[in-house]
Amino acid sequence: MAAALQNRVLVIGPQPQHAGAGALIGYGTSPRDNYRRSAVYVKKVLAGTKPADLPVEQPVLLPLWVNVKTIGAAAGGPARFLVSSMSVRRERRTS
Question: Stretch 13-41: mean pLDDT, rounded?
Answer without folding.
Answer: 84
